[in-house]
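Predict structure. Input: ChrR Cupin-like domain protein, 172 residues.
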Amino acid sequence: MKNDDTARMPYQLPFPTDAQEEIVIPNAVSEDERLWVPQAENVWFRPLCLNRSQGYWMNLLKVRKAGVLSRHRHPQPVHGFVLKGRWHYLEHDWVAEEGGYVYEPPGETHTLVVPDDVEEMITYFQVNGVMCYVDPWGKVQGYEDVFTKIDLCRKHFAEVGLGENYVEQFIR
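Output follows.
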């Protein structure tokens, strides 16, 4: 650790001209329901970063229902960190619990289940690429990508009075 006069001096050179601005969200797990975008009945997401140039998104997923949430396939990796509650995949014998981290490798297909005794689950996810929703035999039923997430945010934020441009702060 440096103890000279420059140790607490901020970086003195200009940032790159074309560098994007950082995103800082002081209260990511907000109690303001307007900030949570409905995804399905009793399922919402809170956008944190919607990176259209690299095709990934980072969000909080909040679920207030027990049962099967979705069956989906990822062609790219997904990272998750459980903030509240717990969940598991039908295809695995582990349970993602509060404080736990999950890495989902590319090519994985799984069925997300929230147990009956969980009133609320909140997990931070970084999803790269696309999520393909599939039936038990792999037939595609729908998909999500960063652009469908942006569209959902625009529509929701306009409906709750924040304005469709509210989503711009999360887009990079």
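The mean pLDDT is 95.
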